[in-house]
Amino acid sequence: MKQQMLSYLSTITDEIFSISNYILKNGEESYKETSTSSFLSNILKNHGFKITNNYLDIPNSFYAEFGNEHPRICFTCDYDVSKEDGDLLAHHISSTISIGAALLLANAIESSGHGSVVVIGCSGELKGGSKAIMVKEGAFEDIDIVMSPCPHVVTAESASSMASLPIEINYESIENFYKTKGYYSPLSASLFTLNGLDTIINSFEEECYINSISMNSPVTPHISQIRCSITFYIKARKMSVLKELENKIHEFVRYTSKLMNVKSDIHYHEMPSDELKTNATISRLFSHNLKESGLIKIDPPRDTHLSLSLGSVSHIVPTIRPFISICEDSSINPYSNEFVKATTSEYTKENVLKAYGVRVWKKG
After folding, report:
1. How far lies 331's CA from each of 153, 291, 294, 326, in Å?
2. What residues contact 11, with CB distance under 8 A and at least 6 apart?
């Protein structure tokens, strides 16, 4: 069976690497990946996968399935890029690995008649990700294993991610507040809140912090400020810590609203993400296969400060997110322009093939 899969891989290698080339040249922003989604789903469709586009009414997501029996192995596929920074997370390589692996597994299923393989195209990962929405809609309840390989400067066992809560706080003034003693502007309430949040977060013994703060208020020279919004993320190693912190934030906002005589509202501006819960058994098996294919040096699991919607998936189905080295120079900073440039090398191509269980022999 393995030799059959390797022979099949030799016939689709060029098609697999057309994925990385396409995304690198034609990358699209979160939830706007119309061309990319179509390109990827058409490759799967041409290899016998049944395709559902705009899956769960999420723009440019897709659900691709081959076979209909258990075990049901799922590969997730992220393909959005940043408008400002490009594809710093190397989604062009992670999509190449995931779809290539799915095609190989589909070929094996076609021969054996057992199992099924699913590829879920997850648009908008950089904007909070669609996986958390899919979890809420039950998309992973019939899946047995989820695999989401991650390009990096090292090869490592499944990495961690941080839990994240995307919070928005809105303050709104009462009518004619600027003429009334004892009433404050929404801006004053927002600044007071940010200072208070910094104090609250620093009081926690566990690792947690506030990230990506944005403050917005309508500006006009004719009307006094009546609204102000703060959006941010709070992150921690465990969602249980964030929930405790979230309760304190709600209390603080209520207190601020009463103290400064402003109306308040607090809610999520995206779906929350749980911390990644790695399945140790699957991770060990995957690492063993990588060593057999020639990726000998495999680091222990790595802690990261990323928040991933995949974390929410990992709490309902066994999940791994192994790192695959795509840079010969491990001193390169991952998620940088230098990192992206390194992905066009022969070393990258060789290690992508090794991730499929192929031992690549160099001449000489």
Report:
1. 8, 22, 21, 12
2. none
Q: Judge contact between 1 and 108, C-beta under 8 A.
A: yes
- Amino acid (one-letter) located at 245: L
Residue with tokens 């790695």: 278
What's CA 7's distance to the chain center, in Å? 32
Entry field: residues in the chain: 364
Tell me the percentage of the chain whose pLDDT exceeds 90: 71
With H, G, I as helix, E, B as strand and everything else as coil, classify residue 202. Answer: helix
Q: What does the pLDDT read at residue 181?
A: 62
The Cα angle at residue 315 between residues 309 and 318, in degrees rounded to 5: 100
Asked if pLDDT for residue 171 goes beyond 90, the answer is yes
3-state secondary structure 126-184: HHCCCHHHHHHCCCCCCCCEEECCEEECCCECCCCCCEEEEEEEEEEECCCHHHCCCCC
First-to-last alpha carbon distance for the chain, in angstroms, is 29
Residue with tokens 């007071």: 192
Q: What's the pLDDT at 180?
A: 57
Closest CA to 187 of 276, 262, 123: 262
Number of C-beta neighbours around residue 256 at 10 A: 20
Q: How confident is the model at residue 364 (pLDDT cuts 50, 70, 90)?
A: very low
Label residue 228 exposed, middle or buried (CB < 10 Å: 0-12, 13-18, 19+): buried
Taking the C-alpha atoms of residue 339 and residue 327, their distance in angstroms, rounded to an integer, is 7
Distances (CA, A) of 212 to 86, 225, 243: 18, 23, 19
What is the C-alpha separation between 191 and 197, in angstroms, rounded? 10
| Alpha-carbon span 281 to 253, nearest angstrom | 44
At 325-334, the pLDDT tens digits run 999 999 999 8
- Write the pLDDT tens digit of every residue in 241-267: 999 999 999 999 999 999 998 999 999
What pTM value is reported for the model?
0.89
Instruction: State how far Cα 139 lies from the chain centre.
Output: 16
Strands (E), the chain: 50-53, 62-66, 72-77, 116-121, 145-147, 150-152, 163-173, 208-216, 227-236, 262-268, 319-320, 323-325
